[in-house]
Amino acid sequence: MSDKKVSRPCHHCKSRSASAPTDTSKIHYEKFWLYRHCSSVQQRDQQAQKAGQLFSGLLAMNVVFLGSAFISSMIFNKVAITLADVWILLSILKVLCLFWIIYYLLGTSRQPHAVLYRDSHAGAIWIRGSVLLFGSCSILLKVFQIGYSTILIHCKSRVEIVFPSIGILFICTQAYFLWHHSKDCIQVQHNFTRCGLMLTIATNLLVWLLAVTNDTLHMEIESQLREVEQRFAGKAPSHPHWCNETTLCTCPNTTICKVFQKGYILLYPFNTEYCLICCSVLYVMWKNVGRHISHHHIPHTKPKFKLQGVVFGPLLGTSAVIIGACVFMMYQIQATSLVPSRQVFVIYYSYYIVLLPLMSVGAVIGTIIHALEKKELDTLKNPTRSLDVVLLMGAALGQIGMSYFSIVALVATDPRDLLNSLNLSYSVLLIFQNITQNVFVIDGLHRQRVTPGKKEDTKEEQNHEVYSQRRVSVLELGQEIRKASLSYIHTYSHLSWKRRVLREISFFLILCNIILWVMPTFGAHPIFENGMERSFYGYSTWFVIVNFGLPLGVFYRMHSVGGLLELYVTA
């Protein structure tokens, strides 16, 4: 009897073990296309996910290499490969991306159980708002490009009108897609979705690479504007060697043509910025394909932005913003004149030389406070945070790289000159500020959040109730203002000194990064307009360096604001 009792479960186990492999293999073969073709990935779903990521990554790599080969050939051999050929290739890629995005919107995302999870960390409102802002500016840039090419249709190719039109459609569709689906953790059609996302990332990278390296229209507009300025000054126009071919296609002396020219130059950095932001959001979506988010990873209460517990940070930051706005307006008025004065460059660099050390000291103090705190590191898997770290480190290379190029040019020419010495100090301080701020933000992002106690919660709820009550009489309104002031002082005094200093530093750095983002975004480019580095490296070389580093620098400031906001809220 005992043998029979033992043999029954064993027989049952054997039958289960004998049938298990067949069922598992059937499920795996039905789930993934790669399981039917790669015998090495038949063990676990994780291996299939890695194989799918590898396959889509190889697709993107080949597309990027093909497009880079076209763009490089256009630069070094303009006879065999022309700019129109590159535009045709990018148009084909954009059309393919449009087909996939439409299929995702109308097909994949509407399937049953397609989006079971949404990543709360992905697609922050400031990221999606940036996509809409830079996308709108990129659309306006394309409109200016179409208008400029239409006026000169007698000497321009029709491709120069068709390509921006396809670009407008691509930007609109992609912006809508990222606004509504940036948080998706898609659970169906894994490999097809990964390939579509990687193809879109590769297309945005190639559009960015073309914008960085193609200075044809810039040189054409620069030569025409310089000729007009020389005629206005009463001098004979002297054409550089690179504008001999463009003088035959001259913009007529009309206001609308000058608006298109100025608008194109002003909005040009927005297009490169838009491509970089889209690549970052698409990469997070690619990492979230097939991802399962457990309930304890989903935050039940999101920390809200409250202007409590900070006094000196807003005061210093607001002062930096106001002074920076005045410097920016002064620079825009004088630097765009026929003969820019040295004084405006001296004021511009002096502002940075004062502000950057303050930001560096604040970041160093914040890093020391992080080291003194007893918070444990947050080791949970978070693709968004990992990407934030990579983007902060990568985007900082833009400003750091331009600074090193400027340092070499300044030391090799005349570092004793006042303007050159200010530019040299600005470049050195900018490198140090980028490094210290990166250390502060990245260290803070990896710290676990502080959960306030119950007493503090009840006090905040009572204060919120006090704020939300409406009074009619003037006397009661004065009493409420007094209560609100006392409540603010009470909240400020009850914060620990470490949290208080961290919030002050974070708020100060937020406002400083905002003004340092606004100034280069809307046209303050002394690194290109002072002419020193441009004459040292040459127009085309310095154009590539600036268009590579400037959008990364703008993106770094904007991304730093997002990271610092998270540090402020969670401090």
Could you characterize the architecture of this molecule?
The chain is mainly alpha-helical. The chain has two domains: 46-234 and 249-293, no CATH class; 309-449 and 483-570, no CATH class. 75% of the residues lie in helices and 1% in strands. It is built from 18 helices and two strands. The chain has helices spanning 2-31, 45-76, 83-106, 125-151, 159-181, 190-213, 216-232, 255-287, 312-335, 342-372, 383-412, 418-445, 454-468, 474-494, 497-521, 526-529, 532-537, 539-570, and strands at 115-118, 184-186. Strands 1-2 form a two-stranded antiparallel ribbon. Helix 3 packs parallel to helix 5, helix 8 packs across helix 11 and helix 10 (342-372) runs parallel beside helix 12. The protein starts with a helix and ends with a helix. Residues 1-30, 236-247 and 451-473 have low confidence and may be disordered.
Distance between the termini: 68 Å
| Backbone structural class | mainly alpha
Return residue spans where pLDDT drops below 50 for at least 5 consecutive residues: 1-30, 236-247, 451-473
H/E element order: HHHEHHEHHHHHHHHHHHHH
